[in-house]
Structure formats: C-alpha cells, structure tokens
Amino acid sequence: MADGSQIRIGVLSCTNIVRKVSRAINLAPNATISAIASSITNSIEETKSFVLSNNFPPTVKIHGSYESLLEDPDVDAIYFPIPASLHVEWAVRAAHKGKHILLDKPVALNVYEFDQIVEACEANGIQFMDGTQWIHNPRTAKIKEFLTDPVSFGLLKTVQSCFSFAANEDFLRNDIRVKPGLDGLGALGDAGWYTIQAALLANSSKLPNTVSALPGHVLNDAGIVLSCGALLDWEEGVTATIYCSFLANVTMEITAIGTKGTLRIHDFVIPFQETEASFTTSTRACLSEHKVRNEIPQEVCMVVEFARLVGEIKYRGAKPDGFWLSFSRKTQVIVDAVKESIDNNLEPVFLSGR
Q1: Domain spanning 134-298+332-350: CATH 3.40.50.2020
Q2: Which of 46, 130, 180, 259 has CA 20 to 30 A from 119's CA?
Q3: Reported pTM
Q4: Which CATH number fits domain 3-132: 3.30.420.40, 3.20.20.190, 3.40.50.720, 3.30.70.100?
C-alpha cells in the first residue's frame, strides 16, 4: 500500500525484465511504482495493457515519452530497463532532473560513457545503483564474512567465476544482447558482468593490475561476444578467471580458494530457491554447507536497499552512497579491458590509472 514515505519509482519502458523488477517494487515496503513511459516500440494502449497485466498500482501515471516521465514531479527515482546504448543519454538527463537511478547492467558501452553518468550523478547528488540483484541477497553478506575471515579463509589466492546459458537460435539472432546498436557487449556485458563482480567481491573490490582475455572466445558475424574467458591478475600472485557464455550449459558458479579455506557456490546469480540460498565452505577441519534464509527474493532486497538510500537523501539530507558508482565503474573498466584484449590478440591490458 502506497504511503507518503515510499520512494516513487518511474519505469522507463515496458520490457520483459520489467515484469520481474516491477513485482519487486510492489513487494518492497518502502517503494512504489508511480509512473511508466511507453517507448517508441510501444503505444500508449500497449503500455496500459502491460500495466494491467503486471499488477501496477491503479494510480500509476502512463507517459507517452521518456521526456515526459523525466519531468514528472511525482517521480523520485527511475528504473532503466533500456538498451545499454541509450544509458548515457537518458541517465545523464535523469540525473540533471534530480531523479535517482537504478540502471540495468551493463551500465554503459564503455567506461568513457559511464564516466559521463558518474559526473552527472555526483554533480546533482544522485543515488546510483546498477541492477545486479545477487549482490543484495543476504547470502552474499555471509559469503563476504567468510572471505574476510583470517582464521577460516585466510588470504585469497584465486577465484573462478562462471555464468553461462545455452541460448536458443531466436535469442542468438534477435536478442538485444547480440545487436551492436543496442547492447553491443554481448555475453561479456551480460553474463560477464556477474562474473567480474564476483571476482571483485572476493578481492575486496580492488581492481586487478592486468586483464588478459583467454583463447577460445566466440564472436557472431557482427563482432559481438557470444562466449569468452579472461584472467585477472593482482599483486602477490592473486588471480581470478572468469567465463561467460551464451553457448554453454547453464552454470552459475564461484570457487574462491584461500590459504586456509575454500568457498563454493553453485547458483550465485539466481538461487535455486527464491527464499533460501546455500554455499559450502571447506577448511582444514571440515566441509560445511551453509543455508541462508531470506524472507523476500533478492530482487526485492535490491529495491529495498535502493529505496532506503534514496529515502536517506530525500528525508534526512544524507549524501549518496558512492560505493555503488565505484563498484559499477570498476566492473565496466574490467569489461572494457577484456574486450580490448580480445580485439588485440589476447594481449594483456594494464589497468594502472584507469
């Protein structure tokens, strides 16, 4: 039920991902959907039908354009389920209108574009968050506890993260993630985003020194990455390998190995159960399975945290939490580096100063 303290979220466009996130907004006690904008591919009537079929609040406003939604005084924040090629334009415009930003990944086509979003957010006091949901699952907090435990885990030595799924022919021909003018980073910007953030999470969000693409990448006829792997190197011999693919069996795994313990997760992107997630740890003493209960799905956890941060700004005059801009920027830097290495015969890319 809407009340005066809820953060009012506008939705830019009506695509399939909106169904999941709109449900999350509806379930979040501190947020409500206040408006939606039809896109150039959806008429007002189609948007009305979408609103009805997805249980939007009866008070939701339907705007005929993105520009109109950005001008709406009854919108505090905007969720952007639009192609990455449109992110820089519309996120920057939203920031200048004072709208907080929940942006689907990849956040941009390259870090140069994302830095324009960063600048606009910082100049206007805007809370930013990318739409990576697993980071907000309560399990992730427990994982971080284990990885930073000097007794049980010790020092990180290496981490492997993988997210793959075998897309069908229609996806490989027509999905926006394989189109250069839409989400031109392909599997690297989609599935790879998760694997890179897993590697960062395991290493205290530190950027690696070098990034090298691994042999075996697959591109489509338009040059879009359908499958690739990469090696990330930090100081003191710490490494990570990532693998992302639209061409392999569904796999969502993290293995992190420390000097005293090992962590394994088999469903890190989307837990097999909506309200329970597990991971295993092994130490010199024993092998343990840990189950973490959560009362709400991880996508709702994301919306709740985003709305909480926006509420702190709106009602208490707080500053935006800059972690999320920084974390997304580091992810984008690594995405760019993997792509650069692929384009340059797997040559390593040095990240100093990026």
Answers
A1: no
A2: 180
A3: 0.95
A4: 3.40.50.720
